[in-house]
Amino acid sequence: MTRPTAVIAEDELPQRRELRAMLAELWPELNVVAECGDGLAALDALEQHRPQVLFLDIRMPGVSGLEVARAAGAQCQVIFVTAYEEYALRAFDEGAVDYLQKPVARERLSRALERTRARLNNGTPVDMAALLDMVQAKLAPRKTGIKWITASIGNSMKMFAIDEVLFFQAQEKYTRVVTADSEGHIRTPLKELIAALDSESFWQVHRSAIVRVGAIRAVEKGEDGKLRLSLKGHAEFLPVSSAFQYRFRGM
Amino acid sequence: MAEPSYPLDRPLPPDVAAGESAFIQYYQKYTVFSWPWAWRRTVVFGSLGVMAGVSFGASHGLFVRDLGEAIVVSLACSAANIVLVGAGPMLAAFFRHRSWPRRMERVVIVGAVICGIVLGVISSDWATQVHDQFMGAHGHHSSSKMQPTADVHMFVRRMLDASRDLLMLFIASGGLALPAYFSEGKRWAEHRRRVELEKISAQKSESDLKLTVLQAQVEPHFLFNTLASVRSLVTSDPQRAAQTIDALAQHLRATLPKLRAETGTSQSTLGEQFAICASYLELMKIRLGERLRVELELPPELREVPFPPLLLISLVENAIKHGAEPKPGVVDVTLAARAIDEGGQRRLEVSVEDDGAGLTMGMGEGTGLANIRAQLLARFGSSASFDLSQRAPGRVLARLTIPLEAPRP
User: Fold this and answer.
1) How confident is the model at residue B151, as a pLDDT?
2) Domain tally for chain A?
3) Is A235's pLDDT higher than 80?
4) For range A99-107, the mean pLDDT
5) Confidence category of residue B263, pLDDT binned at 50, 70, 90
6) What residue spans define the domains of chain B?
7) Do B364 and A146 touch (CB under 8 A)?
């Protein structure tokens, strides 16, 4: 019987070495065919070596361990090695995936290896996409609301605090982001913006415009008899289309 | 000068309104020489004027025993008094609502008040004539009929009478409102300062709270990863393991005691903040190895300059977490401080630059950065600036400037 093969992906060299040393001791038959320092290298190694066992750090440069596991699909047994807190990883308890918390305790590693050996011997690995989704959702930063807009200005980019933005305006391919003293553009369409922005602070007033309520100076009738908004600290007027005039009724 | 963009026809905030008395407050809580002010004042003083006119008319009626005359004299005197108290303020209000330039408005309003006095004099003269005609018809000489100046004594008396009358006229036709009108700008400025102060202290306490929470999150991912590094180094490279433990201890010592600081008023120096960042970066260098290159530029003369705690380390952690860690390959992080001149003002510029993963266009939830911004706003108001930008692909520059304070003794 051929020796089982393994790939280790861990961005910190001392930890990688230590894991390798422990594996040599606890599972001497295991053949570590590659060590990778980032996610991209791990994807390459996966392609090239098609290992049976994959040791993955979760937070790695380039591509995260969760993404590498997704790419591996059902082709190998995955053991995550991570410093993340347990609550996020508990989903793995139910499934066919093992995880180890850093610093890796010998005991835990030894038990995980036993289970992996058992799985290697009977049956094929299962696809863990659903599990990965769950863990990924738990690890994602909690939604705290949009605070910044990163917009490009010519060749550079700048982060605007959301409460500096006066309005967003749709243009052919881009969305204009306008503040009192600067402006840039983003690729996010208005539809997506309005869904994500706080509906108390930002109002859509036109098919092509979202305005920050606090930036409105006055509502007035333009020469064409339609409502338009004048803004604090900005000379442009924003048209209010009839569908959104209800917001300003009685003002 | 910042003109109050406050609508003229709304009641003023109490500390901007000119008067205190409850009765007088009926009009004084409005902007001086605004329409609501003018007509309310006219109602207040006009009612006094009507009372005076009616009592004068009534006493005339009693004297000559003629009801018709009593009514005519009452009406004439009341009307004259209303003109006296109302004409100046109304005229002034008419001009104030034109929103003319400040200087011109002032001149015109003083003119309007003088016009009001003149109109008051004319209408009083007319009412006196009405009364005098009745008295003449009854064969009496008016008491106010002027006698030719007989001697110096009479001249002085008449001058005194005239100046007393003028003072009364001045007061009645809104002259006393002029000082209140001229000091309005000052009261507004004080009001705005007070409002801003209140706002700032509210924001300060709020962001202090946020920072306390932030501090409490000594990030588990960071802590356990560091412990894992130390553990792996213990056997392979004991000396580096020792270094790592030293750096970790230094980092914790610098950041942990702040958890127990009860208020956020704690101050520190730029040198201390650089040292905290240095120990953190030292730690990250041990962990990331060759991948991380660090440069710190702190001119010695800026070492003792006051600088708020936790701002700089937040920026550096940000550069590591979002710049260096996600990007494969070597990443440079540069931390620099310098004194700059901005519009003749000495300012302190502190920047953290990395050539890591770079910014992503679109929406973001960066709470850490939002806290930094809130903290700067709370401490320095509008005199601090903070921006985060990317000039070239992957080169992210976080830059903050604050007023440069003298080093602590």
Assistant:
1) 67
2) 2
3) yes
4) 91
5) very low
6) 22-182, 200-403
7) yes
The answer to whether residue A159 neighbours chain B at the CB level (below 8 Å) is yes
The 8 Å CB, 24+ separation contacts for B234-241 are B235/A18, B235/A21, B236/A14, B236/A17, B236/A18, B236/A21, B237/A14, B240/A14, B240/B286
Amino acid B346: pLDDT: 92
Query: Cβ of B229 and A15 within 8 Å?
Result: yes
Q: Which residues of B touch A14 (CB under 8 A)?
A: 229, 232-233, 236-237, 240, 287
With beta carbons under 8 A apart, name residues in chain A contacting B224: 83, 101-103
Say if residue A243 is in the same domain as residue A158: yes
Rounded Cα gap, residues A224 and A6, in angstroms: 72
A32 pLDDT band, cuts 50/70/90, is very high
Range of the domain at A85: 5-139
- Tell whether A173 and A73 lie within a shared domain: no
pLDDT at position B202, please? 63
Q: Tell whether B242 lies on the interface with A, counting CB pairs under 8 A.
A: no
Which of B26 and A83 is assigned the larger pLDDT?
A83
CATH number at residue A113: 3.40.50.2300
Residue A159 belongs to a domain with what CATH number? Answer: 2.40.50.1020
Q: Sort out which chain A residues have CB atoms less than 8 A from B236's CB and list them.
A: 14, 17-18, 21
The average pLDDT across B190-204 equals: 80
Answer yes or no: do B387 and A62 touch at CB < 8 A.
no
Write the pLDDT tens digit of every residue in B228-247: 999 999 988 899 999 999 98
Average of pLDDT values for B250-263? 63
Contacts B392 to A, Cβ<8 Å: 155-156
* Confidence category of residue B62, pLDDT binned at 50, 70, 90: confident
Residues A98 and A9 placed together within one structural domain of the fold: yes
pTM score of the predicted model: 0.63
Q: Are residues A162 and A118 in the same domain?
A: no
- Quote the CA–CA distance of A202 and A178 in Å, as a whole number: 13
In the chain, the amino acid numbered B240 is R
What architecture (CATH level 2) is domain B200-403? Answer: 2-Layer Sandwich (3.30)
Q: Label residue B220 by pLDDT band (50, 70, 90).
A: confident
Give B243-249's long-range contacts (Cβ < 8 A, gap of 24+): B243/B282, B243/B286, B244/B283, B244/B286, B244/B287, B247/B279, B247/B280, B247/B282, B247/B283, B247/B286, B248/B283
B141 inside 8 A of chain A by CB: no
Report the residue from B228, B326, B390 with minimal CB separation from A83. B228
More confident residue, B204 or B309: B309
Which of the listed residues A139, A170, A185 is the one where a domain comes to its end? A139
Q: CB–CB of B40/B31 below 8 Å?
A: no
First-to-last alpha carbon distance for chain A, in angstroms, is: 83
Q: Give the residue, A8 or B405, on which the prediction is more confident.
A: A8
Peptide bond into A239 cis (omega under 30): no
Query: At residue A33, does pLDDT exceed 90?
Result: yes
